[in-house]
Structures are given as C-alpha cells and as structure tokens.
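Z., the sequence and structure:
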Amino acid sequence: MKRPRKSPRAKRRLRPFRAIRAAARRCCRNIARRLGLGPALANRGYMICAVSRSGSTYLCELLASTLALGNPNEYFNTAGRRRRMGPSYPADGFAQIDIIRTIGATSNGIYAVKVIGPQLARIASSIDPFRDLPNLSFVRIHRRDILGQAISLARARQTGRFITSDQQRGAPAYSQGQIRHAIQSIRQQEAIWDETMARLAAQPLVVAYEEILSDAQHVVDRIATFFSCINRQFEILFQTLLTNIISKILRTQRYFDLLLVTTVIMNACINDTFYCHTLKRAFLLDLLLD
C-alpha cells in the first residue's frame, strides 16, 4: 500500500525539523571525526568551474586517473548523483561538502569538485562552497568553438544523453531554435562564472577543451603545476618556522623537542602538504619554546 502524499502545508511545517535534524547529523559527524571514528577531511582542493558541453567530464576523468589530484565530480548535483550513486545520496549541502572532502579526495589530501554555473544558485540557500571548502583553488574550462558546443548541448537535451552511460530517451533532430537557445544558455553560464570570479577576486587557471583534445597530458601537467605553485606560500611559512624552532632547540639544548619537530616534519611529508594542521602544530611548538 502506498503512503499518502503530504500536503504542501504539512511539508512547510516539517521544514524547521528537517533543518534541526540536518544540524544534529552534522554535529554527530564532527564529534565522530574528532574522536577518530570518521574519515579524515582533505584540507585543500580545487573547483572545476564548468559550462555545459565544455569537455569537463573528460577533464574530470583525466584528473581522477592521476590518483593525486582528487576525484572531481558534480557532488552538488543531487539528482544526478542519485541516478549514479543511488537514492541514499544526501541532499544536505553540508553532507555534500563532507563527501567532497572524503570521497572527492585522493590519499594525499587533495579534494576536487566540478560545478556547472547554475548549480551555484541551487545551493546558495544552504551553503557557501567558497567559504565552506578550505583552501579552494579554481580551474576554469571553456570551449572556443561555441557553435559546436551549442549543437552538442542541443543534441544532449534532445536525446537525454549528457554522458555516454546515460540512456537515450529521444532522437536528435536539427533545430535552429534549439541551437540558438543553447548558445544563449552557454553565454549565461559563462556570465555566472565571470561574475563569481570577479566577486571573489580569484585568478583561475583557464583551460580550453581544444587544448585537452590536442595534448591531454600537457593540460593535466599544467593543473598539477598550478596547484603546487599557488600553495608555495604555505611551504615558505613552514620552512621559516622550522628554521626558527631548530635554532631555539640548539640554543637551549632542549633535545627532546627535536623529536617533536621530527614528528611534525614526517607528518608533513606523509601527507604531501604543508597545510593547516601542520602549520598549527609548528606555531604551537614555536610558542612553547619561547
């Protein structure tokens, strides 16, 4: 027997309780993580700022295949994730943030997420990914051949096949009106990213679909190099702190503290990062030695 559908009024009455339940789940996850019972969260990563039919899916597959640059996917696309991962995929924005920083991360602590421009408006009421994702960088992908991109988008909308694994639901047919509409949609999505990058004063790495087709390995290398270079300032800060700490130890002959410093260095090397927790420990150790 099917359950009777709730009325719109009943759904509105339940909204505050849903928010409380979501907050309670977040609290439980945070407590479990602090106790070491949950997966560790990656502390640095990047967002692929994509437009429909720009080759972003192919780029995500290339980056994931490196096993070192995260596992980029449309984690904010709840309907799409449920089709591919099952109905249990959460709609809660904070739960999706946690998924990005765990499932979307590789073992070296780098997470990755792909976002299509209009998805930003859908999640804006619950989360701010630019605030909630730590140490976030940007890779922007576009396609030089806008007409070819529009034809591809119109065809995907007609057939329902946005990726090769999607089942075809209709037959493609030439339609000048749909192509024009697709061009307008692409320009609107590009405008969303233009406005967002300007608001954040961000300097993304820009990649063209045609560059991926001509030399995919070069594009992946560029992204890997870009991601390493923008975090160089953290490495410099860590090295400065480390030099200061070692000089204090040698001056005061507190050799037991040298073991602590070695632990910090090993932790940084194992995680291939000089980020948050390592810097915090170095700052604390530097203060203790004063």
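The first strand starts at residue 44 and ends at 50. Residues 268-277 have pLDDT under 50 and may be disordered.

Let me know what you think.
H.
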